[in-house]
Specification:
Blueprint (H helix, E strand, L loop, with lengths): L5 H15 L4 H30 L13 H20 L23
Length: 110
């Protein structure tokens, strides 16, 4: 979720036990869980309200779609794909060969 693995979580739990004591850690964990739930509810409510205000064409809107880094990355990738398509030589009259058909050969070209 936050890029925290099992080893990091164990270190955080160990430090919490040392700092707060074993009797307060469960209560602190319960409070932290409640805080995360409230933050998630707030984010979901904001997303739903934004979807309602924007209308049905934005029904699949996600908040991460509004991240400027995501928007820039998307436009850069699209621009690169367009540039690759323009750079490809366009062959007039080219068609795929049928099965067993030999490609054209020009003896004078070599």
């Amino acid at each position: 979720m936050f890029g925290i693995g099992l080893a990091e979580l164990a270190v955080i739990a160990f430090i919490a036990v040392l700092v707060f004591g074993p009797e307060k850690v469960p209560e602190l964990a319960r409070q932290a869980g409640g805080l995360v739930r409230q933050a998630r509810k707030f984010a979901n409510a904001a997303r739903d309200e934004l979807r309602d205000e924007l209308g049905p064409e934005y029904a699949d809107l996600e908040l991460r779609d509004l991240d400027p880094r995501t928007i820039v990355r998307k436009h850069i990738i699209e621009a690169m794909e367009d540039a690759e398509e323009e750079a490809r030589p366009k062959r007039r009259g080219a068609r795929p060969l049928h099965e067993g058909e030999l490609p054209p050969y020009d003896a004078e070209a070599t």
